[in-house]
Amino acid sequence: MKIVDIGELAKSSGVTTSALRYYEEVGLIQSVGRSGLRRQYSEDTLLQLALISLGKAAGFSLEEIKGMFGKDRKPDLPRPALHQRADELDRQVRRMTALSSLLRHVAECPAPSHLVCPKFRKLLRMACPEGLPYEKG
C-alpha cells in the first residue's frame, strides 16, 4: 500500500488541502497517519475522492455521499436513491438539450420576431416542460 501525504493527494486529486481536512473531519476519508505535521493517506483515497466528486456532480450532499460508504470504507449504495437521481439527471439532460436547441434556433432564425416563429414556440415548449406562464389558467 503506497502512502501519499496531503500535498501529493491534493495535487493528484485536484482537491484542496483544506477540503481534504474537512472531508476527514466529517468522515468521508481517513488518514493513515502523519509524517511530522503532514497527514498521510493511502493511495486508495484517490478512488474515494473520485467517488465523492462524482456524487457531488450528481447532486448528492456530502452527508448523502458519506452514507454511501459502509463500514471499512466499502460502498453501501442505496440503489433506489441512485435510480431516482439518475432519472432526475436524465430529465435535466433533456431540458438542457431543448434549451440548447432553442438558443441555436434564436441565433440562426431569419424570422423578424422570434415570438411569431412556430419553430421557436415549439422549442420553447420543449425547453419549459412545466408549461409557459401565458398558457396557465
UniProtKB/TrEMBL annotation:
Record InterPro entries: DNA-bd_dom_put_sf, MerR-type_HTH_dom, MerR_fam
Coiled-coil regions listed: none
GO terms, molecular function: DNA binding; DNA-binding transcription factor activity
Origin: domain of life: Bacteria
Any single Pfam family the record assigns to this protein: MerR_1
Residues annotated as domain HTH merR-type: 6-71
Keywords from the UniProt entry: DNA-binding
Protein name: MerR family transcriptional regulator
